[in-house]
């Protein structure tokens, strides 16, 4: 339980304050925060609320979208990325997740992937000065066009390894990487470059490419084996349950947290 974190999106319909209070009520000591709810609540108030309830920040989502194609429209927003860095530091976090962005309008995947590395290089000095590490997260290949041109751990590591370990690392999410034939080899290669680990399950049948995530134990992923491999690579930090699912969101968040807590040992740690 001391490693369990719950991402804000898992209890989407709770406000930031409700989420922090709920986590504390269920004995969960870590939160994966999103910039939107924190900004809505107020960064200083959020930091105080977290301290008062003994809840720490495992990660903040998100920055990035370096390629010019993303679901929110527009291109690279440098100011938004800097604000995300500032917010992460202000609420006591030190890991900021990056979403690469989808393929450019010219459909040039190699060039789009190079744009990701260029965008990270530009952001690194600002993040480093704030004590924030940038976590490159590969998304599932079905997200390549719209959200992320980095879709495997290997591709993400090729980018991560260009930078100092103190500044840029790898984020592993079971939903995005479980299918990869090179998964375990890539995790071993990553070693201590892993700075974030998120878990959820792959529902069968898959209801939606974005909202098809299940509570661990509900689907097809052998999460404990991935957890062991991530641990063997050297990662000992918080394990964050992140679920996008309309059915989960429609459930009483207290019931969701109770289910996550009850199954964490068996379905995540194994």
Describe this structure in words.
This protein is α/β, with parallel strands linked by helices. It has one domain: TIM Barrel (Alpha-Beta Barrel), CATH 3.20.20. Helix content is 42%, strand content 17%. It is built from 11 helices and 10 strands. It has helices at residues 16-25, 35-41, 43-53, 78-90, 109-129, 153-160, 174-177, 183-190, 223-232, 246-250, 253-269; strands spanning 4-7, 30-34, 56-64, 95-99, 133-136, 168-173, 194-199, 201-202, 213-214, 239-241. The strands form 2 sheets. It has an 8-stranded parallel beta barrel with strand order 1-2-3-4-5-6-7-10, surrounded by 5 helices. Strands 8-9 form a two-stranded antiparallel sheet. α1 (16-25) runs parallel beside α3. The protein is globular. The two termini are 13 Å apart.
In CATH's first tier, which class applies? Alpha Beta
Characterize the largest beta sheet: strand count, sense, and whether it forms a barrel. Answer: 8 strands, parallel, barrel
Taking the alpha carbons of the first and last residues, their distance comes to 13 Å
Number of strands: 10
Q: Total domains, how many?
A: 1
In one word, what is the shape? globular
CATH fold title:
TIM Barrel
SS-derived structural category: alpha/beta
User: What is the N-to-C order of secondary-structure elements (H for helix, E for strand)?
Assistant: EHEHHEHEHEHEHHEEEHEHH
Stretches where pLDDT is under 50 for at least 5 consecutive residues are none
Mean pLDDT rating: 96
Share of helix among residues? 40-55%
Which CATH-level-2 architecture? Alpha-Beta Barrel
């Amino acid at each position: 339980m001391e490693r369990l974190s719950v991402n804000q999106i898992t209890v989407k319909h709770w406000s930031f304050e409700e989420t922090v209070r709920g986590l504390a009520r269920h004995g969960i000591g870590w939160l994966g925060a999103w910039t939107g709810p924190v900004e809505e609540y107020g960064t200083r108030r959020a930091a105080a609320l977290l301290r008062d309830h003994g809840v720490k920040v495992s990660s903040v989502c998100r920055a990035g979208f370096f390629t010019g194609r993303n679901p929110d429209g527009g291109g690279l927003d440098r100011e938004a990325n800097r604000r995300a860095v500032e917010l992460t530091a202000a609420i006591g976090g030190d890991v900021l997740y990056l979403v690469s962005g989808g393929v450019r309008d010219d459909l040039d995947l190699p060039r789009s992937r190079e744009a990701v590395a260029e965008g990270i290089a530009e952001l690194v000095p600002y993040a480093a000065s704030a004590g924030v590490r940038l976590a490159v997260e590969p998304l599932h290949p079905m997200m390549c066009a719209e959200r992320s041109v980095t879709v495997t751990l290997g591709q993400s590591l090729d980018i991560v390894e260009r930078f100092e370990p103190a500044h840029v690392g790898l984020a592993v999410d079971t939903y995005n990487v479980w299918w990869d034939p090179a998964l375990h080899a890539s995790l071993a290669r990553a070693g201590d470059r892993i700075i974030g680990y998120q878990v959820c399950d792959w529902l069968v049948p898959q209801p939606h490419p974005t909202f098809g995530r299940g509570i661990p134990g509900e689907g097809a992923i052998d999460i404990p084996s991935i957890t062991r491999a991530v641990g063997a690579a050297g990662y000992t930090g918080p394990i964050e349950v992140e679920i996008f699912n309309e059915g989960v969101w429609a459930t009483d968040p207290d019931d969701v947290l109770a289910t996550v807590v009850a199954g964490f040992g068996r379905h995540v740690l194994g």
